[in-house]
Automatic annotation (TrEMBL):
This is Cytochrome b/b6 domain-containing protein. InterPro entries: Cyt_b561_bac/Ni-Hgenase, Di-haem_cyt_TM, Hydrogenase_cytochrome, Ni-dep_Hydgase_cyt-B. It comes from the Bacteria. It is found in: Cell membrane. It is a multi-pass membrane protein. Pfam families: Ni_hydr_CYTB. It comes from Sinimarinibacterium thermocellulolyticum. Signal peptide: none annotated.
Amino acid sequence: MNTPDHCQQKLVWDVPTRLFHWLNAACVLALMAIGLVILNAGALDVSNDGKVALKTLHVWIGYVFALNLMMRIVWAFVGGHYARWRQILPGGAGYLSALRDYLAAFAAGRSEPWLGHNPAGRLAIGVLLILLTMQAVTGLVLAGTDLFYPPLGAWIAQSIAAPGVDPSTLVPYATALYDAEAYARMRELREPVVNLHVWGFYLLLAMSLLHMIAVVVTEIREGGNLVSAMITGRKTLRGQPRDAESDATDREPG
């Protein structure tokens, strides 16, 4: 039997989950940095050529980000125990009770270790996944309206090209090549997507900061080497984790 001071180490995060986490973090940081420059291009006196270069880099990193997110979504169906949807999203039998117990223990300063994500962490991950997906989808739409990049770029170029202009020759800011009315309609339809993308950026920034703070606070109060575990895959916990029983009945594949 484990005592409160007993430490145990267990492989929790599989390799694909760890790769997704760090690649996603790198992409989000890069996209946020470039996005801030794009948002402030006027104040920074960035030329049109400079904006096109920044947007091009932003889009290519965005493709990596979106592909990485798609692979994580697939892995949530076929990956190891702690990579599955039922372990990373809020909900399921007993979730609300577990969330109340966890929050009560946290407020009282008691440690309640979990091998996988704790109930509060699963709630945060649900919000993060919604925001990440929204940024990926809106970003792909804007890639088509700004730079005529896939998956929608060819269709958008065809819809706004001026009569007699080959849509494949359209480039950003070349308004002489555009049909003025069609371009205005496209920009009008694009506006709510831009707003979603920008507000999603601010919400994702806030959630990312909250996530980092929560990781630091949880590691200090409960142990569990959360940061290094996402590198090695192994968690070290004091005491019996709440999710140990389900772990014993649901092994990782292979």
